[in-house]
Amino acid sequence: MEPLAITVRWASSSEELRGAVAVRERVFCCEQGVPREEELDGRDGEAQHVVALEPGGGRVIATLRLLEDGRRAKVGRVAVERDWRRRGIAARMLELALERARADGCTEARLAAQLQVTGLYEQAGFVVESDQFDDAGIPHVWMALQLDAHERMGG
Predict the structure, then answer these.
(1) What is the chain's alpha carbon radius of gyration, rounded to the nearest angstrom?
(2) Cα(155)–Cα(149) distance, rounded to whole angstroms?
(3) 79 phi and psi, to 5 degrees?
(4) What is the number of other CB atoms lying within 10 angstroms of the CB of residue 83?
(5) Which domain holds residue 81?
(6) Which of 147, 56, 135, 46 is closest to 104 using CA atoms?
(7) Which own/partner contact pairs does 125-134 have at CB distance under 8 Å and 24+ positions apart?
(8) Would you write out the chain's pLDDT as a tens digit for each of its 155 residues?
(9) If you write DSSP's letter for every residue of 2-60 in order, what string do you get?
C-alpha cells in the first residue's frame, strides 16, 4: 500500500483519541506485556495526540503522544499496529510532532526509546543520552534532540 494513502494528523475528536488509546493497549499491553495501569498514566488529557488513519476506513492504526513542559517536548507512546509497521508511519508521526514542538517554542525534544527502535529516532536526529534502563520489563534509553540547532541546520 502506498504510504501516502495513510493519513497522519493531529487527533481531532474523542473517537480518534479512544482509537489511539486502543492501539496503545494492543501494542504495549497485549503484545509487549506492559501493565494497563502503567500504560494509562493519566496524562493523555494534557497531551496532544498524533494519529495515523487506515486508508478508506479512517480507523486509527498508529499513534504518538506529545507532552510539552515549557521549552521541552516529550515524545512518547509511539505505537503502530503490527500489520502497519515498516511503512514509515512512525517517522511521519514523529516529524509532525517535532514540527508542532518547534512551532510552540520548544528547544529540546526527549523520549524514552525501546532499544529495538533507537534507529528510527537516530534517523530523525535524536542521540542516546543515558545508559540502558528497564521500563515495564522492556529495555529503554533516553534520547534527545536539540530542536533549535536542528532547525537552523535545515531541519
Answers:
(1) 15
(2) 8
(3) -140, 135
(4) 8
(5) 3-152
(6) 147
(7) 125/150
(8) 454 589 999 999 999 999 999 999 999 999 999 999 999 999 999 999 999 999 987 899 999 999 999 999 999 999 999 999 999 999 999 999 999 999 999 999 999 999 999 999 999 999 999 999 999 889 999 999 999 744 444 44
(9) -GGGSEEEE--SHHHHHHHHHHHIIIIIIIT---HHHH--S-GGGSEEEEEE-TTT--E
Number of domains, the chain: 1
Report the CATH number that the domain containing residue 33 is assigned in CATH.
Answer: 3.40.630.30
CA 152 distance to own-chain centroid:
23
CB-based contact 62:76 (threshold 8 Å)? no
Q: Which amino acid is at 39?
A: E
Name residue 113's amino acid: A
Contact 75, 66 (CB under 8 A): yes
Query: pTM of the full predicted structure?
Result: 0.90
